[in-house]
Amino acid sequence: MVRFGRPVLGALSSGFELYESFQAFDTLRKMTDPKLRQDALVKDSDVSSAGSFELLVRLALLGSGEIYSAIRQVQELKKWVALSDAEELDARWSYFSYHDLAPDVENVAIYQ
């Protein structure tokens, strides 16, 4: 079981990865907004990772995707709220670590 489990599970999961990859590129083909296209590319980039360093590649892509997502969310927030440098850094960390924004920033964002 141990000897053949990993290759069999790898072969079975590759079908799901191909399907996810096809869906991601099909959705990307239909998008026209350049920022949304870039967001989709970053989000779905880990689908195409493979090889002997698959886990490391996936973790690196996941981390870089989360950093990119936090930066983009702060860019969108700055359209509605004027942030100081410290507030901007705190907001990026909050989005990256899935925490709530600082109450004063969140209140301003909600009521804008």
Describe this structure in words.
75% of the residues lie in helices and 0% in strands. With 112 residues, it is mainly alpha-helical. The chain is elongated, with a radius of gyration of 19 Å. It is built from five helices and no strands. It folds into two domains: 1-48; 67-112, no CATH class. It starts with a helix and ends with a helix. The longest helix is centred in the N-terminal third of the chain and has 29 residues, at 2-30.
Distance between the termini: 58 Å
Biggest beta sheet summary: none
What number of domains?
Answer: 2
Instruction: Spell the H/E element sequence.
Output: HHHHH
Q: Please, what is the average pLDDT? A: 75
Give the overall shape.
Answer: elongated
- Could you tell me the strand content as a percent range? under 5%
Which descriptors apply to this entry?
mainly alpha, elongated, 112 residues, 5 helices, 2 domains
Question: What does this entry show, briefly?
Answer:
This protein has helices at residues 2-30, 34-43, 54-78, 85-96, 103-110. It is mostly helical and 112 residues long.
Secondary-structure topology with pairs:
Layout: H1 2-30, H2 34-43, H3 54-78, H4 85-96, H5 103-110
